[in-house]
Amino acid sequence: MKFRYFAFCLMAGTMTVSSCNAFLDIDPTDKATEKLVWSDAANAEMAVNYFYSDIARLGSFRDYQCAAGLTEGLTDEFKYGNMTYNAEMYIPNEISYGGSVITANYTDVYLGVWGSTYEDIRRCNEALSKLEGSTFGEETKIRLEAELRFFRGMYYFELMKRYHQAILYDKDLTKISTNIPLNTEEEGWDMIYKDLKFAGENLQISTSATGRLTSGAAYALMSRAMLYCNNWDAVKEASEKIFKMGYKLTTNYSDAFKNDNSEDIFQVSYSATDDVSHSFDGYYAPGGDKLIDGNSMYGGYGTPTQEMVEEYELATGGKPDWSKWHSTTGVTDTPPYDLLEPRFKATILYNGATWKDRTIEPFVGGTDGWCTWEVDATNEGRTTTGYYLRKLVDETHHFSAVQASTQPFIAFRLAEVYLNYAEACYRASDNVTALEYVNKVRERVDLPILQNLSGEELFAAIRHERKVELAYEGLYYWDMRRWGLSSTAFTGIRRHGLKIEQNANGSFTYTYVTVDNQNMNYPAKLDRLPIPLAEIENNANIEQFAEWK
Predict the structure, then answer these.
(1) Where are the alpha helices (DSSP H) in 297-454?
(2) Is 404 exposed, middle or buried (0-12, 13-18, 19+ CB in 10 A)?
(3) pLDDT digits 0-9 by tens, 410-454
(4) Phi, psi at residue 539, to the nearest 5°?
(5) How far is the C-alpha of 156 from the C-alpha of 170, rounded, in Å?
(6) Half-sphere exposure of residue 79: CA atoms within 13 angstroms, side-chain side
(7) Which ranges constitute the DSSP H helices of 226-305?
(8) Could you say which DSSP state residue 370 is in?
(9) 20 alpha carbon, distance to own chain's centre
(10) Among 66, 72, 154, 374, which has the minimal tally of Cβ within 10 Å of its Cβ?
(11) What are the angstrom distances between the C-alpha of 293 and each of 275, 296, 298, 381, 396?
């Protein structure tokens, strides 16, 4: 959103000094007072605008989820290639290796959001309190309350999915106190449900993904959030509301990440001319974009793994046999990239792929180049795995013209809701409907429909579709965590890539290599993040969770 800076100034300017002296009790003329803000609908709307940019923190461009880069870098999907200690560099590797570094303080610094989120909740509740006493039209008041309750539900969701419990505050500001115990997990999820349901019932119904929040956005967040507390009825309730609103899957998968298309339910828009941008391309564009096009940040900080590549099916269905390319001595056969389903080519750049009117060269000495983990201290744009991220990177972005990235962040889209619904139906033992909605996602990319699946086979199919369809959208790490699968799936394994070398005759040798020098390790205690030390020291009614003592 383009309006947060002004809205922040507006909110900051509402702090005034009260006095019993009528002569001194006048409105200053150089700032917007609370009285002015909440007596005028347009000003109140600008105050609410303050919260909009936090929607971008849900995803990849302003990652709310992890102060150490994309959360996929903590999984088997993605590998960061730089050794320097920084976000988008060594830190996500360090977290993925686990061990003694995973202390309560370290985890809070790099994965925690407690303090900043409570600051936003406080501001949100202050706005709700002021809105209640406002004097403008009831219809506008209800709409703005719905927007604010969407944000409060969003903030509490980010707390609950990490900590499983939270201190619940509402617009009654007299309840704010230092020594308040945690509410129960059930109470936390119930508040999120009620906030998002109110928002869904009172926001406009519109299939436009841009502008102000819609009913669809509220129900989309509700369908996502309720998966985390196993409230399958609420997931179905929210999803079915969306299905009636007229959203449609795009014909081409890659179009789902472009501006205001038929599938997107809500997006955050950017504009270089308005100085509202992000740096995603600078971090993740292929390394050759620096040499050819002037990327000042090198690119290629993190790259997709061979494990992720092998998740994709053949275009005709079923997975190819990759055993030939698991050779540690190298083979000259070209991997079956051209045979894979459309989402592969829309998500991952590979040797020989076309990009910006050139051919990707992720081989040793190529334009994009190869980096060996913990041998080359910095990758300088070179791939550590033999691949680059294509999805979410803007192919139309030319660094020679402007460094900033402006592609939209798609916060919610219909395909995710289909898969949320499929999972809820599966959990409710409705296998037929679960398969129907999994197949809606598969049919878009012309994959064969799945039939007669149930039990673990059906659950595995749902997990596969979420991993592929929603790849690098910031959901996989949290999905595995809420399913209770992380401690087994991300422990005792190493990630891999294909090291590519060009031969004298122009052919290539592909060698299967480990891109970790130690095993990944996901301690079970990461299933719930620790409460920050500052909160424990200042709140006599809270103690650290048992797994972090």
Answers:
(1) 306-309, 342-347, 414-427, 431-444
(2) middle
(3) 999 999 999 999 999 999 999 999 999 999 999 999 999 999 999
(4) -125, 110
(5) 11
(6) 31
(7) 232-243, 280-284, 288-293
(8) B
(9) 49
(10) 374
(11) 21, 9, 11, 13, 12
